[in-house]
Amino acid sequence: MRYTVLIEKNEDDGYTVTVTSLPGCISEGDTWDDAIANITEAIEGYLDVLDELHKPIPVEITVQTHKEITA
């Protein structure tokens, strides 16, 4: 499955990642790659809990990323 994520650079030069269609599914990472790996793990855990609780799994087909570029 694919989910839209919002990736923001935080004040500590790391990244905060939020999954827009999974309320409360948020993670962080010191690098872009760490942030992506961590949110992937968070999404898997989130979906596992929904499955265990017999809750519907949200379906989304678009993934968007945002990278702030300064000149």
Please outline the helices and strands.
Elements: E1 5-9, E2 15-19, E3 26-29, H1 32-52
The major β-sheet equals:
3 strands, antiparallel
Fraction of helical residues: 25-40%
Q: Compute the gyration radius: what is it?
A: 13 Å
Distance between the termini: 35 Å
The strands making up the biggest β-sheet line up spatially as 1-2-3
What is the tally of beta strands? 3
What is the level 1 CATH name?
A: Alpha Beta
Question: What is the average of the pLDDT values?
Answer: 89
Into how many domains do the coordinates divide? 1
Order of helices and strands: EEEH
Q: Which residues sit in consecutive blocks of at least 5 with pLDDT less than 50? A: none
Number of helices: 1
Which structural category fits the helices and strands?
Answer: alpha+beta
CATH-derived architecture: 2-Layer Sandwich
- Named CATH topology: Double Stranded RNA Binding Domain
Strand residue percentage: 15-25%
Keyphrases for this structure?
1 helix; 30% helix; single chain; alpha+beta; 71 residues; elongated; Double Stranded RNA Binding Domain
How would you describe what is shown here?
The chain has a single domain (1-71), classed as 2-Layer Sandwich (Double Stranded RNA Binding Domain). With 71 residues, the protein is an alpha+beta fold. Strand 1 and strand 2 form a beta hairpin. The chain is built from one helix and three strands; from the N terminus they run βββα. Residues 3-65 form the HicB-like antitoxin of toxin-antitoxin system domain. InterPro entries: HicB-like (IPR031807), TA_system_antitoxin (IPR051404), TTHA1013/TTHA0281-like (IPR035069). This is HicB-like antitoxin of toxin-antitoxin system domain-containing protein.
